[in-house]
Design a protein that fits this description.
The complex is a heterodimer. By secondary structure, chain A is an all-alpha fold. Chain A contains six helices and no strands. The mean pLDDT of chain A is about 90. Chain B is built from seven helices and 15 strands. The chains are: A mainly alpha, B alpha+beta.
């Protein structure tokens, strides 16, 4: 059963979870992990409130000066692709281009898939990185 | 058993939640398992209605017959309340619209279920309208939301076809929700739209109101550690429907039938439903008046 094979007979949620776990765990040693974690917490809310196109566009716009924004977008693309939810060519930029080129049905599907992926990333930021919504890591001083 | 349709009209954002969830929103609203469409659980409504009536000295004596005893000392004191309250289901979702500010959206799947409940409750109901084509909407001929033949909802631009047959449904719901207000009925009719089921489902998942909440640490005046969360609400102006059923009184010494007990229930009641009352959520109108066909 390959994690990237959408035809494998496992649950889609498990494929998404595996892909999200791997990406978030890989951020453990990242210097930007607190900012990354805080942004991942916001990601599902951003998609719901602003739509997927606005969200990916916003993260792309921030990416040049804020590497953690690019990291979030990259991980979202990776989770979507590895889980078999959606095949995205061209990385972070490719996802945004795909979203803004999508027709109605594809928009509905991509948005739901992105929400699912973002939801799992958020869980693992809480459970693996132990970073809360305000970007505070477990064990940090309350101040 | 005497079934009757009730409607809920949200006057403010409505948070009937399921507690903390492992989901994209920290505090999501309750949804039906099979359809994932928003619901207001019947238990929430029944409890709030009971509390409201208990707080009114004139209506308080009817409470045990309707809702059952507050405390049961033993088997001899136990009896079932005569009122059964079902879950309330989403009927109209207010959706942001470029023209006309807001559009009241529903879909064939929802109208079909609503109609079936109306018929079960002994009410006549308009015939089901034709389904919209894929990726298109149907609106009443004088829709205020249609601009250049298109309905602009959230991020969706849907070609919209005028359908005079929709007026009957819009007027029906308008009469149920605003029985004494002709202007409000007209307002609802002109903002009524029938969307394909897949688009309605998508909007019911992504066009609910997400509120970001924080808590301030009084010592520092900044956000408390970790205290930032997202709550989902049904937007104000949402309309839901459900079924209430009354039986005869099961209370010893009370021989009132369902018709007599129905007279104890209000035709219209202002309630606070669901959580987050302190921040203005959950003000709803409960409406029980039957619509004349």
């Amino acid at each position: 059963m390959s994690a990237g094979n959408p035809r494998s007979l496992d649950l889609r949620s498990h494929r998404v979870a595996r892909a999200a776990y791997a990406r978030v765990e890989a951020r453990k040693a990242d210097e930007q992990r607190k900012k990354y974690g805080a942004l991942v917490h916001k990601l599902p809310g951003m998609i719901l409130q602003n739509g997927l196109a606005q969200t990916t566009g916003f993260l792309l716009a921030k990416a040049q000066k804020e590497p953690h924004a690019y990291a979030v977008l990259e991980d979202l693309v990776d989770v979507l692709t590895r889980s078999g939810s959606s095949t995205i060519q061209g990385g972070a930029t490719g996802l945004h281009q795909r979203v803004i080129a999508a027709d109605l049905n594809e928009t509905l599907l991509l948005t739901r898939r992105a929400l699912e992926a973002a939801g799992w990333m958020k869980r693992y930021v809480q459970g693996v990185l132990r970073i809360d919504a305000t970007g505070t890591a477990e064990g940090d001083d309350a101040a | 058993m005497q079934p009757r349709i009730f409607h809920l009209h949200a006057l403010s954002a409505l948070h009937c939640g399921v507690g903390q969830a492992a989901d994209v929103v920290d505090l999501p609203i309750a949804r039906a398992r099979a359809t994932h469409l928003p619901i207001v659980p019947g238990s929430s409504l029944r409890g709030v209605l009971r509390a409201q009536m208990e707080g009114d000295p004139q209506r308080e004596p009817d409470v045990p017959a309707l809702f059952g005893p507050r405390e049961i000392g033993g088997a001899a004191d136990a009896f079932a309340g005569a009122l059964a309250v079902g879950d309330a289901h989403l009927l109209l979702l207010p959706v942001r619209s470029l023209a006309g500010i807001v559009c009241y959206a529903t879909s064939p799947f929802i109208l079909r279920r609503y109609r079936q409940d109306l018929i079960r409750a002994g009410q006549a109901a308009p015939p089901l309208p034709n389904e919209p084509r894929e990726g298109q909407a149907r609106v009443v001929p004088d829709s205020v939301n249609r601009q250049d033949g298109v309905l602009f909802l959230e991020d969706l631009d849907l070609p919209a076809q005028e359908d005079p047959a929709l007026r009957a449904w819009a007027a029906w719901i308008g009469q149920a929700v605003h029985p004494d207000d002709a202007d409000a009925q007209t307002d609802l009719v002109t903002r009524f739209a029938l969307l394909p089921d897949n688009i309605m489902h998508y909007l019911a998942e992504t066009a609910t109101e997400i509120r970001t909440r924080i808590a301030i640490d009084p010592a520092t005046g900044t956000v408390k550690r970790g205290a930032l969360w997202y709550e989902e609400n049904l937007p104000a102006e949402s309309v839901l429907w459900g079924v209430q059923a009354l039986s005869r009184s099961n209370r010893q010494g009370d021989d009132r039938d369902a018709g007599a007990l129905a007279a104890c229930l209000p035709d219209e009641e202002l309630l606070q439903l669901g959580g987050k009352a302190g921040v203005g959520r959950g003000l709803v109108r409960l409406l029980r008046r039957e619509v004349s066909a």
